[in-house]
Specification:
The protein is mainly alpha-helical and 180 residues long. Helix content is 63%, strand content 7%.
Length: 180
């Protein structure tokens, strides 16, 4: 995540040194959105970095709090990229690389009692006994779907974080390049 923080600073410097600040001064909503997105990129990277340095625990309550916090930070970071791109008029940058993380987050912690949007619909949950400092398993509550195969699914935090970091770093570089 250090690379994300450094890339976010380069992005912020480019915004401040470029004519975008002057141009967006006439569009305060877009300027505010861009500033908030830049702050969020750094803030979420610091939160994710802090998560990766926590000592392991077996306390289920703490594990849930860590898991929910990590997944929320990851999706907030993705949203920051999307908002920055929108404010700069650059379009959608994350494509499908991170959609699976958003879908899993929404299914497991976002709106788990009844997910009605996206490709995964229904009710899902984290297998409490599988929850560790390194990941978890999750499944649908629909037994027919479960029997159809592919469940439970396993999420490994280091793998998720690597995928997130690579995609977000690339997206920040695209933001910088798109500014000219």
């Amino acid at each position: 995540m250090i690379e994300i923080i450094e890339a976010a600073e380069r992005f912020r410097n480019k915004v401040n040194d470029h004519d975008y600040g002057a141009r967006l001064a006439n569009e305060p909503a877009k300027w505010s959105q861009l500033c908030a997105a830049m702050d969020s990129l750094t803030d979420t990277a610091m939160g994710i970095l802090a998560f990766s340095m926590l000592p392991p625990t077996e306390n289920k309550g703490e594990l849930y709090l860590r898991t929910y916090g990590l997944l929320q930070c990851m999706t907030a970071q993705q949203s920051a990229i999307l908002c920055a791109a929108k404010a700069l008029g650059l379009g959608h940058l994350l494509v499908d690389r991170l959609e699976a993380i958003r879908e899993m987050r929404d299914a497991t912690i976002g709106h788990a009692p009844s997910k009605t949007r996206g490709t995964l619909r229904g009710s899902f949950g984290i297998v409490q006994s599988s929850l560790t400092a390194y990941g978890f398993k999750w499944y649908p509550f629909d037994f027919e779907r479960y029997k159809a195969g592919g469940w439970p699914r396993t999420e490994v935090f280091p793998d998720l974080l690597k995928e997130q970091e690579e995609a977000v770093y690339d997206a920040i570089e695209e933001l910088i390049a798109g500014m000219g």
